Amino acid sequence: MNTAQHPATSEPVDAVHAVLAEAGVLARRLREVLAQLAEGALPLDELIRRTAVTRRTVEDLIATAGPDVEAVGGTYRLTPEARDRYRQRFALDELRPAASTGAEQLERMREFVESGPAPTTALDHVTATPETALRRAEWLRDTYDLRGAQVLCLGDHDLTSLALSLVVPSASVTVVDVDERILAHIDSVAAEHGFAVRTLHADLRFGVPPVLENSADLVFTDPPYTPEGIGLFATRAAECLAGPNSRLLIAYGYSPRTPALGHKVQQELLRLGMVFEAILPRFHRYFGAQAIGSASDLYVCQPTAHTRKLALRQAPGIYTHGPQSVEALEASAPAEFLNAIGERVGGPVTSLRDPGWPRPIRQQQGAPVFDLRADPGPWLLRMLLACNAERAGFVVPNNHPDITSERAQHALSELVAAKYRLRFHRSSPDSKHAILVADLVDTPTVAHHLLTRAHGKVGNVWREALIAHSEADLTKREARERVAALAPIAADLELRLIDLPRHRIADLLRAATP
Hints:
Elements: H1 12-23, H2 27-39, E1 42-43, H3 44-51, H4 55-65, E2 69-72, E3 75-78, H5 80-89, H6 103-114, H7 130-143, E4 150-154, H8 160-167, E5 172-177, H9 180-193, E6 197-201, E7 218-221, H10 227-240, E8 247-252, H11 259-271, E9 275-285, E10 295-302, H12 307-314, E11 329-330, H13 335-345, E12 352-353, E13 369-371, H14 379-386, E14 391-397, H15 406-415, E15 420-425, E16 433-440, H16 446-451, H17 458-469, H18 476-486, H19 502-512
Helix pairs in contact: 1-2, 2-3, 2-5, 6-7, 7-8, 10-11, 10-12, 17-18
GO molecular function: methyltransferase activity; nucleic acid binding
Organism: Saccharopolyspora shandongensis
Protein name: N(4)-bis(aminopropyl)spermidine synthase C-terminal domain-containing protein
């Protein structure tokens, strides 16, 4: 903290407020210093010992408070005149030890977990206990200043976002997950209980929604426990951290029988320029994961000045699939496999394109065919949103959730009907795969406008669509007011359609369709 960066104000308390605002989530430590000064006179060394704040930072804070702090015989305290003003302005009484989780909160958390989706092995899901989710929330509350803070959960099968909302109802939390079921469950619970939780869809192999870049004060993640998994999630987290006062919190565990694996994972974090501020052993407990004792540690990582630059340099190539390979063409299947696909698509297919939707996929010569054989489920819809070719093909597993039944096929077809007409070919080109052929619908409607511009901000695209396709001549203001009145969730107007959870895309398109 450098008080020279803060210009003089009419009141010392305003200058102190500016220092705390700059500290962000780390302001809690400075508030603890102020709380000690409000309690009574203390020598500087005792003040440092009690708060674990560095001498230079304590001295700077005292200097910033100026005449509001009095020095008597080598001790410091807030003056009687300033004491109540500081207590109220900085909510110092809230820093007293909070009561631990009550039976009611724990029972509520158990209900959230039990009513949520079952773990998916393909996504490396291992469920943390409800007690663990609440322990995480309490630790965040007692360690950081969450007033006005932005907390991001990269993946949230454990429902840490809901636990934090129980413990700190005013917390602002964003959840990013690839599992549509989790996003729908969190949205449902948050709506029922009035929690301030926002959900977004993303597969981290293809990046994070742009709205999250440089936005988070705290990022929490419990990723797959492999060097590649930790490296990917930590890299995406680094892209989202707001600045040097932000922190990355990672759940990770390894067996003491395999310390080399733990070493590899820690190297991934060090390679990103992270500093291990703390490692809390056996902090998390799980139903399962017995190979690591059904427990993992909490890593508290501080970014350095080089972290974001290293993250942007490291992101491509972490996974086989990624944004860097979206435009790449390569032979990825035998000739007979490609020939069979060509028969369904209606033209020669010489190679399959890798998946990815960080940007729109424009029209090109011939019908592009995308390799979605590794699709865990959500990729197909995102690729249909990103692709604007007149005809496109998608190769998916034969047991893909969007094609395994007539009901599933109808649901997907209905969702994108204003943009694409879909044809499903199961057990083709072989018994393990299926081909979906999408033909562009050229009927100009508001929904078509939204679906073909899925990377634009929803509010802007919807407004343009109303102006272009409304029978009445609408002004920009009239169109904007109509959009605001029709939108199911106002906050979604600031986001991209392709980043919304599937159920909210469906709700939005229904609202946009007369």
